[in-house]
Amino acid sequence: TAGITQAPTSQILAAGRSMTLRCTQDMRHNAMYWYRQDLGLGLRLIHYSNTAGTTGKGEVPDGYSVSRANTDDFPLTLASAVPSQTSVYFCASSEETTDTQYFGPGTRLTVL
Amino acid sequence: GQNIDQPTEMTATEGAIVQINCTYQTSGFNGLFWYQQHAGEAPTFLSYNVLDGLEEKGRFSSFLSRSKGYSYLLLKELQMKDSASYLCAAMDSNYQLIWGAGTKLIIKP
After folding, report:
1. How far is the C-alpha of B6 from the C-alpha of A93, rounded, in Å?
2. A99/B91 CB distance under 8 A
3. pLDDT tens-digit readout, A35-60
């Protein structure tokens, strides 16, 4: 079982460009999440989705958008990247019975 | 506001025991999670507590006191592979996780 996959593994992006970070899970979890992780800070929630067709804003949603067309995929889009969006991005999904979140391997994004 | 506090860094010796503390303040409470994160990797689930008391899982144990807003992760018989960051996260009333910044654990031979 693959669990959660993310693509790309890493990316260098020019400021002002757009980019979509991909996330796919094969565990049939309803809930999915996007976090960013910066040195010295805890994981911060960007957006989440409790089930296909619904999304919600987390702690730091500005500059990011998401969609949830189906259960498996939860892409994160940066419409116009800025250097402050340089970070490691983790996608996660959670099982309903325990709310335990399982993480993808992450995408390291550098915006120059 | 919501807040999680845990030490930034701890050092311990191989074979010893270490306790990593975490205090939390959240709007509502639906459980306390501990995750392990090796450098450059994703967080992986270690434990979940929602009731007061100690949960033991092999070399790792986790304790929760809801009245004190306090948890700890206890690691016994430390191995070099336990060198990692340990993340404490509390689930609030909206079932969202509030994360601490993590405790970097350094194991010395």
Report:
1. 25
2. yes
3. 999 998 889 999 999 999 999 999 99
Q: Do A61 and A47 form a contact (C-beta atoms < 8 A)? A: yes
Chain A CB within 8 Å of residue B10 CB: no
d(CA B54, CA A92): 27
Q: How far apart are CA B60 and CA B89, in angstroms?
A: 17
Residue A39 phi, psi (nearest 5): -55, 130
Which residue, A58, A38, A111, A106, is CA-closest to A81? Answer: A111
pLDDT tier at A1, thresholds 50, 70, 90: low
Per-residue pLDDT tens for B56-109?
Answer: 999 999 999 999 999 999 999 999 999 999 999 999 998 899 999 999 999 999
What single-letter DSSP state applies at residue B69?
T
| A102 contact B CB<8A | yes
